[in-house]
Recover the amino acids of this structure.
């Protein structure tokens, strides 16, 4: 009976946390989602970590089931890798609980559970590092629909939201424990007479309510009409090509350019002159600046000059290695001359129709690559596995970009800097905030979420972008091949949101904002403080255990 109860409680944590994650509308469940698994751990089950694994396997299944694509055209490798992530990912969620269990052995429940928000935040933050970084399921994202409560992340970043969510769970657990230990009498509200309950209850109310006051002020402060009247405006066009991602690598580069150009031209005819038009990730495929692109670039430039509009687009860049330059694990031999090697990059290109201080083209190479999907983790040490782990579409061996930089849009009329964020880079808050520090006036995300059409994936990716807009207090323009494309305001509200799975183009007047938020300036200061607290706690626990021995 006890074993069944523990299994049910473990599954309940996975279920409540899963239901709290977008696009499901039950965000408040996150504030109680951790409670069941802690009740299980207090029961001292024989296999606690197996129950934790079970819990977060269900959480991953509810939120990230779409990683295998499950479409008729899906690559078998993508399907297998999605299943592999499902099996492995819960192990990362186990790590903070392993540390919690060790701390709990040497201290009281209250101390251990109130340390857990620090433990959780540190391990969540650590998931943003290394070749296998995958911070998609950061608990703070459960509140992206709770937009007024979330506004404080311009101070703390998304990890601040995670910290408070887990802290509320911890405080509720303290209340539950004290009530159970004191064998609560049936009189209404009698538990407030128990020592320590008042403080915990008031703390919960404070953490839940105070962010709303800050949030209402900030949502009003960043009202679109107010910002528009006080800032320079850039007229931005967004082109959503809606190309089947499984077929796009079989279509000629020029055909894809024609498709996007036609939507581009139709938009300009409808709305007039635009400062910049954006196309999605890899809208221009296998486009080699150094080898065969001169005609294509000239063709594009002629069109841009005619329309007096600049272009920002995703493309696949090829860069030949210079003599003596290091050949990496992802470098390839050039088929026309095997003595030559090149690196291929998932890239963004900016073409100004009338450059004054800059030159065409400006290129940014993607620096955060999707594990397995775009690059095999630790490929330098696993060269032998590279061919085994290659997509049918052949994009699992991109090279990593080395320079984070903004791109400069300019003409005789105005000049502004854009952050060229490509796909999964948008889920790394510290990485994105560096674009703000470098002087970005507006954030751009180009992506191709078509691999996961008609699943939770594209909507989750869009909602994660909401957090980036709030953290940096900048307008965020999002251009996705099949959607979700849109413009997100600095308060997280959508100014424009285009329908998915349609060939469509739209324009928006986007205010340029060069302010630097506290978070953009100082980054992940909160996880760093959590690290200090955690290290101190571990030292304390170690010496206490040592003295006891």
């Amino acid at each position: 009976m006890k074993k069944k109860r523990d299994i049910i409680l473990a599954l309940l944590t996975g279920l409540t946390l899963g239901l709290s994650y977008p696009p499901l509308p039950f965000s408040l469940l996150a504030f109680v989602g951790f409670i069941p698994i802690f009740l299980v751990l207090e029961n001292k089950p024989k296999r606690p970590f197996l129950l934790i694994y079970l819990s977060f396997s269900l959480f991953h299944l509810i939120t990230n089931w779409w990683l295998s694509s499950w479409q008729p055209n899906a690559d078998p490798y993508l399907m297998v890798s999605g299943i592999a992530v499902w099996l492995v990912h819960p192990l990362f969620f186990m790590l903070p609980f392993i540390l919690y269990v060790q701390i709990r052995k040497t201290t009281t429940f209250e101390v251990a559970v109130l340390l857990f928000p620090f433990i959780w935040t540190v391990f969540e933050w650590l998931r943003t590092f290394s070749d296998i970084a995958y911070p998609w399921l950061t608990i703070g994202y459960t509140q992206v629909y709770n937009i007024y409560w979330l506004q404080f992340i311009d101070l703390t970043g998304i990890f601040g939201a995670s910290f408070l969510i887990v802290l509320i769970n911890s405080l509720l657990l303290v209340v539950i424990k004290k009530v159970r230990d004191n064998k609560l009498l049936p009189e209404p509200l009698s538990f407030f007479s128990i020592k320590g309950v008042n403080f915990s209850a008031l703390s919960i109310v404070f953490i839940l309510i105070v962010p709303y006051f800050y949030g209402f002020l900030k949502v009003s402060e960043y009202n679109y009409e107010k910002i528009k009247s006080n800032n320079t405006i850039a007229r931005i066009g967004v082109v959503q090509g809606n190309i089947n991602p499984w077929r796009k690598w079989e279509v000629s580069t020029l055909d894809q350019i024609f498709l996007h150009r036609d939507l581009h031209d139709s938009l300009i005819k409808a709305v007039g002159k635009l400062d910049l038009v954006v196309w999605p990730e890899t809208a221009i495929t296998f486009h080699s600046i150094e080898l065969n692109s001169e005609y294509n670039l000239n063709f594009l430039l002629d069109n841009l000059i005619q329309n007096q509009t600049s272009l920002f687009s995703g493309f696949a860049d090829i860069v030949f290695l210079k003599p003596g330059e290091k050949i990496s694990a992802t470098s390839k031999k050039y088929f026309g001359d095997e003595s030559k090697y090149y690196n291929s990059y998932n890239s963004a290109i900016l073409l100004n129709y009338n450059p004054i201080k800059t030159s065409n083209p400006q290129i940014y190479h993607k620096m955060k690559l999707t594990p397995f999907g775009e690059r095999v983790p630790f490929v330098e040490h696993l060269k032998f596995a590279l061919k085994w782990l290659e997509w049918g579409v052949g994009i699992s061996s991109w090279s990593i970009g080395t320079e984070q930089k903004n791109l400069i849009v300019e003409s005789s009329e105005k000049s502004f800097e854009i952050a060229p964020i490509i796909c999964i880079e948008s889920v790394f808050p510290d990485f994105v905030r560096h674009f703000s520090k470098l002087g970005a006036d507006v954030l751009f995300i180009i992506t191709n979420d078509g691999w996961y059409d008609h699943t939770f994936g594209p909507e989750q990716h869009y909602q994660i972008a909401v957090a980036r807009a709030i953290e940096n207090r900048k307008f965020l323009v999002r251009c996705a091949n099949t959607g979700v494309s849109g413009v997100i305001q600095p308060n997280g509200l959508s100014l424009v949101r285009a329908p998915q799975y349609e060939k469509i183009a739209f324009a928006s007047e986007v205010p340029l904002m060069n302010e630097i938020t506290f978070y953009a300036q100082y980054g992940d200061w909160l996880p760093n403080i959590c690290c200090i607290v955690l290290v101190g706690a571990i030292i304390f626990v170690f010496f206490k255990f040592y003295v006891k021995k």
In short: The chain has 15 helices and 13 strands.
